[in-house]
Design brief:
Blueprint lengths: L32 H13 L4 E6 L2 H4 L13 E4 L4 H14 L5 E7 L1 H5 L2 H9 L5 E6 L34 H7 L4 E5 L4 H13 L4 E6 L3 H4 L6 H11 L4 E5 L3 E6 L5 H9 L11 H20 L3
Parallel strand pairs: 1-2, 1-3, 3-4, 4-6, 5-6
Antiparallel strand pairs: 5-7, 7-8
């Protein structure tokens, strides 16, 4: 699956001169949401200098074997737990050297929600000048598809073969509680909104956090061609809110869901991970509506 049809309406003048962030010849699977996300990021970077820190994840396998790299920017590989800490050092070095370089963490959910949470929280609390992007495929995709705290309820993984019994962690609420300058969710099915948010976050200072729902055909047991459609269905059904939080207080909803029962059912049906133990759609819909009631309250009355 190529990102180009999605991006046909976006400006290309700067891109014509820019190095791709993810070059051809990478080892990513077809339909990988992370690959599309990196192409969206490229539109926002548009040639400006960046350094990227990537912890253990599918993303750090993508470059291929030394001495070659599929990345068109300087990349540092970090341990699972230390991406935000390493990025902090790079950001301080860039500031001391008077460089315009923007430092980006590009991490999966395992290195964000779980193993990397301590350094993520510490960098957010200190308001370090870096952009942290979590591409969330809702599993430990690079090590066999184990459950993470980003895995949704009812999803089967190698460590929850009968389906996960509890809900997914609300990572945006956690970062908002740190009162970071900017936190937002990105939809691959809404590329203009996603590129706008990437560009805004790159231009801002302080700690910025972006959450990208990133379908994984291998782990989700879905067709590669369905990845963007899955995100569209997740947004329509209300499962994945598309929003921004400014200063941890002001919430703005960018895309209104229609809470379609048909969209929810199709989202589940297109993924093999929900087939072994069919989800209780009533439970899922109740959870979706409860979360949206909370989001509406936050949007009306910033804390």
């Amino acid at each position: 699956m190529s990102a180009e049809p999605l991006l046909s309406g976006l400006p290309h003048s700067a891109l014509d001169r820019a190095e791709p962030i993810l070059r051809a010849g990478n080892t990513n699977c077809g339909g990988c949401g992370m690959s599309v996300g990196l192409q969206l990021l490229r539109h926002a970077i548009a040639g400006r200098p960046v350094q990227i820190v990537i912890p253990a994840s599918c993303a750090i396998v993508a470059p291929g074997a030394f001495p070659f790299s599929a990345y068109g920017a300087p990349v540092i590989a970090s341990t699972f737990a230390s991406a935000a800490a390493m990025a902090t050092g790079l950001a301080h070095a860039a500031r001391l050297n008077g460089e315009a370089t923007r430092v980006i963490c590009w991490a999966g959910d395992g290195g964000t929600y779980d193993i990397g949470m301590a350094t993520l929280s510490a960098a957010a609390e200190r308001d370090e000048d870096l952009l942290y992007v979590c591409y969330d495929n809702e599993i430990y995709g690079n090590t066999g598809g184990q459950r993470s705290s980003a895995t949704p309820r009812f999803a089967a993984t190698t460590t929850t073969p009968e389906g996960k019994p509890v809900d997914k962690k609300d990572i945006i609420a956690i970062l908002a509680a740190h009162r970071v300058p900017y936190a937002a969710t990105l939809s691959l099915a809404h590329p203009e909104d996603a590129v706008r948010k990437f560009a805004f976050a790159l231009a801002e200072t302080g700690f910025r956090f972006l959450h990208l729902l990133s379908p994984c055909p291998t782990g989700w047991k879905s067709e590669s061609a369905d990845s963007v459609e899955l995100v569209r269905l997740a947004v329509r059904s209300g499962l994945f809110p598309v929003l921004e939080v400014f200063g941890g207080r002001r919430t703005v909803v960018n895309v209104e869901p229609d809470f379609s029962a048909e969209a929810l059912e199709r989202y589940l049906a297109l993924q093999g991970r929900f087939r072994k133990a069919p989800p209780d759609t009533g439970v899922l819909r109740a959870a979706v509506l409860a979360r949206w009631e909370e989001l509406r309250r936050k949007a009306r009355d910033p804390a």
